[in-house]
């Protein structure tokens, strides 16, 4: 199995990657600003589920195909970018209804029918995250000790370490953003502003992801 030294080194590298805001973190922040704490944490769960799919794909050898194929990588990247822009535009158009949405959440404890949609949107962003995709395909295999055997199991273990760190860090980002949103929620105008800001953040993120290239 993976030695403790390899695990610690991988955990340190994972933390450095995760703590710097990327597509998943910025999407969580955008959700927190637009919809609040519950939506942010649900998005974190969805993002993590998407990352788990990437880990399994790498363990089964699919990740190397994505890393080697510019066409496949670009296609996945553009699909993810287009989805982010779509969500951002929708959030911007609905920014005026943010106050009623907050009232409904306060009364019912959750947005009725919105939990699964938020979870799915987080999953879609997580599974199409180019930064995570490249990290799993290019970096994760380097920490596997092939001499110990059970390569797929080692990759799954390393992926689990990455996702645990991601859940903790992304949750902190989401809760911090949601805490700031509470102040905005006291004013319909301020809440509309922050809802629009969340939408613009997602649109800008989508454009950034689309413009991100590969070294090769």
Protein architecture, described:
It is built from ten helices and no strands. The model is unreliable at 98-113 (pLDDT under 50). It is mostly helical. Helix content is 81%, strand content 0%.
- The proportion of residues in beta strands is under 5%
The DSSP helix count reads 10
The averaged pLDDT comes out at 75
Please tally the β strands and state the result.
Answer: 0
Gap between N and C termini, in Å? 33 Å
Q: Structural class given helices, strands, pairing?
A: mainly alpha
Uncertain segments of ≥5 residues (pLDDT<50)? 98-113
Envelope shape: globular
What order do the helices and strands follow?
HHHHHHHHHH
Biggest pleated sheet: none
Helix content: over 70%
Give the radius of gyration: 18 Å
What is the secondary structure topology, with strand pairs?
Layout lengths: L3 H16 L3 H13 L1 H23 L2 H7 L1 H24 L4 H11 L6 H13 L2 H10 L11 H34 L3 H24 L5
Summarize the structure.
This protein is mostly helical. It contains ten helices and no strands. Helix 4 (62-68) crosses helix 5 and helix 4 crosses helix 8.
